Amino acid sequence: MPQYYYADAHCHLDSCAGVLLPHILMITCGTSHETNLRSMRIAGENHNVYFTAGISPQEAMRHPDIKIKLVEWEEAISSLLADSGRLVGIGEIGLDYHWAKTEEQKHLQYECFISQLQLAERLSLPAVIHSRDAEEECLEILRNFNIRFMMHCFSGTESQAKEAASSGGTVSIPPVSGSERKKFIASLPLEKLVAESDAPAIGKTPEAAAESIKMIAQIKGLDEEAVRKATLMNTILFFGIR
What we know:
Blueprint: E1 6-11, E2 24-29, H1 33-45, E3 49-53, H2 57-60, H3 66-84, E4 87-96, H4 103-123, E5 127-132, H5 135-142, E6 149-152, H6 158-166, E7 169-173, H7 179-187, E8 193-195, H8 209-220, H9 224-239
Parallel strand pairs: 1-2, 2-3, 3-4, 4-5, 5-6, 6-7, 7-8
Helix pairs in contact: 1-3, 3-4, 6-7, 8-9
């Protein structure tokens, strides 16, 4: 395996500008059929990039015919696993009640989420979870599935973070501080944490994951080098990268 300096466990390279640095292990994440395909292409062109493929809740609620669409999209994702050799997870998927304002929109997100969790089980892949204003609902749903999962850019409570970790989940930390985030970073074991940039939505580039690593180290009172190595290994193990 190549020698990486640190890992960005969640970014969107199809939307990022600039040169991809070779010493960072990057997981670029799809949110739609089109971005899944772009993510596969980027991963195929860069030795230090792997990708996940999924339909985000924001995308799901745009499609009243979501059940029909999912058949096509999930067949395509299954093909990406066979064809690319770089697909390491299903995501980002989940629930986002910040954007879903109607019961119909929430229902479309739910239908999509359940279907893709079932897909993750069938393909034996971990799931990358987007939960915004819906953390408790996501955790309740995840209890019904036998899959590894990562709570991307998690912004829930300390108790919810602990529940996720105790249920086999990994909690991903973006380069943004906050009182509740500080609490669960301090209380969770280091082996349950990974660092992400969520570039370009939060960090501008994947290098911003280094800020997450620094924040984890400061809050936990650990050496930054130790956190860098640990979050890198946690990312590798979570996604089963060889």
